[in-house]
Amino acid sequence: MKKFIATFASGLVLGSFALPTLALADMDCKDFRSQEEAQAYFDAQGPGDPDGLDRDNDGIACETLP
User: Least packed by Cβ within 10 Å: which of 31, 32, 53, 58?
Assistant: First the structure.
């Protein structure tokens, strides 16, 4: 029983680190239907541009999208 509890607890701890990683997707401009949709995603991410949606750093994401 102790082995089961230890294994279960380890799974919970490791799982808590794995889930946030799965939620983070590398988004590209092709993943959005419009510039407005890309901009909303970009703005919601906060400071920085980890997905590279604003290549010229002018604050406008995916400028080539309709």
Answer: 58
Could you identify the residue written with the tokens 């590279």? 52
CA 39 – CA 56 distance, rounded (Å)? 14
Q: How many domains does the chain have?
A: 1
pTM of the shown model = 0.62
pLDDT tens sequence across 15-31: 544 434 434 689 999 99
- Number of Cβ atoms within 10 Å of the Cβ of 64: 8
- The structure tokens listed for 12 are 């919970």
Of 5, 2, 66, nearest to 35 by C-alpha is: 66
Q: Which H helix or E strand runs over 19? A: helix 2-23
Give residue 38's domain range. 25-66
